[in-house]
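User: I'm putting together a teaching handout on how multi-component assemblies are represented. Below are the sequence lines for each component of a complex, exactly as they appear in our records. Could you produce the 3D structure of the whole assembly as structure tokens, so the students can see both representations side by side? Please keep the chain order the same as the input.
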Amino acid sequence: MADANPVKSMDSIMSLCKRRGFIYQASEIYGGINGFWDYGPLGAQLKKNLREAWWQDMIMNPCWGRKGPNGERVRCVPVETRIIQHPKVWEASGHVGGFNDPMVDCKACKARFRADHMWVAGFADLGKAEGVNERFPEFPLALYEEAKASGNPAKIMEAVKEMRTVHRLDAMLKEDFQKPRFFKTAVGGSLNEAAEQLNLSKREAKAFITPVVAWAGSLADFRSIVGEGAPCPNCGEANSLTEPRQFNLMFKTIVGALGTEDDKAYLRPETAQGIFVQFKNVVDTTRVKVPFGIGNTGTSFRNEVTPRNFTFRSREFDQAELEFFCHPSESQEWYKFWRDFRMEWWQSIGLKSENLILREHAKDELSHYSVGTSDVEYRFPFTAPGYGELEGIAHRGDYDLKQHQEHSRQKLEYFDTTRGEILPNGGKKGEKYLPHCIEPAAGLDRGVLALLCEAYTRDESRPSPEFLKLHPRIAPVKAAVFPLVDKDGMPEVAEKLYDELAAKYGKVGFIETDAKQSIGKRYARMDEAGCPFCFTVDGQTLTDQTVTVRDRDAGGQERIGIANVSAYLAEKLGV
Ligand code: GAP
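Assistant: Of course. Below is the structure of the complete assembly, with chains in the same order as your input.
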């Protein structure tokens, strides 16, 4: 039986993205720049639609008007804060001191890797074992020796596979052979990714692959392991890897013309801090009352050691973050509320529930600021059967406001007039506190990538075997208007309808029109762009004022009055 949820080909998705103008490599004509991606016409509109959906459902009409755990409507306001902030913001937030990744360099080819993403495949050195064949006569030691002499990792692996089939190699390795021998290093965020690169089955991966840092127990032990000969994953040179060094992920820049170290500033690594530093201004200048949220969207920068998996880990990316401030006693309830809503939201714009999980972080995984964090994770083709983070929902406690209060020496406490003991006049005495904060932090580029991966569909029976099942709310092309043929008065009718729809719906996406090529080819082109509705003016239109509407996913058609097209589209797009 066919797999109902097959893993899609990332190469095909990337090639469609390029071919149809969704995503291009940044500076492509100069050979590209690692970790940076540009959006083409369709991608730019798709990403805008995603941001708008977030803005609408998180800020303008939060949670679709749903009531929060306090029994009242959820209230949120936006801010737009700058990429460059006072450098002390990043000292207070902990990013200057603690926003590091361990990095390993190859001394031979100068390639750089994340130490916590390096996996070494190896096994005990059978060559050192004595009397193997006496005790295990059928053991194919010669095969192994031959493979080892060839120095070819693929051959060694073949020999190991052969040995595994005739013997319980795991047990033998434990009993008879002590010294590990490493023959291949892979770089992958997960064991599965590493296994894929090494061409190993899951079972083999478990037996032969070890994460370099975790296995070493500490970074200090790293050398004793790589010293045994783990080769560089890029050039294959043994003994060429340096010990891991901590590497700060923030990009530095200089503000002003003098260019001294005193003029140093950072490009923000998250949009969240802009919210915390403006918290007091928002409270003082608007009528917001705790509990309430402040949303911020925009570009963040992280000098990722190993950008990878298309746009998934980029060095420049956009975030959409909400900081929801509440009384400490209500924070757990709000944490659960936001966690659940965010899962539901991603499904509402087209991600299938079977491809999403909500994963609660283990205690030792939590960021320095977090009391609790859950990730919404998506089953990307490059993480499948595992999942990759799409959004983090963190309970940050009062960490950030407290840090900024200390570093700026400004009082950031909130005076809550709805709390405190009841006074003789019946009013409340009030309570001063630092609100706790729940933070749903989404990545817009990862969101676009997840939506494209989900939408990508292959169906060999269609004129275009590849098409995008994008949700109408998110699709960059909302509708197309076609004359069936480029004559007989049809183009004029189509153009009039096109003008009407473009004027009304151009603000939410493209309305396309095209009279060239066969109608099948024009439909196929729209399918690839993810356009949900095609309206076609044909001979019948001229007599009864109806057009056909073609449903992208089912491929079926119905007829509706040309006068009803706009209302039909409004309903389908939810605008
Ligand atoms: N303020 C909290 C914060 O920034 P995060 O988990 O580091 O939390 C939030 O980032 C989201 O930003 C992630 O879930 C992811 O979607 C996106 N993101 C983080 N680093 C990224 C990168 N290098 N490339 C693309 N998106 C990234």
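A couple of points students might notice: Residues 270, 272, 302, 304, 313-314, 317, 319, 321, 389-392, 439, 441-443, 445-446 surround glycyl-adenosine-5'-phosphate (CB under 6 Å). The first strand starts at residue 23 and ends at 25.
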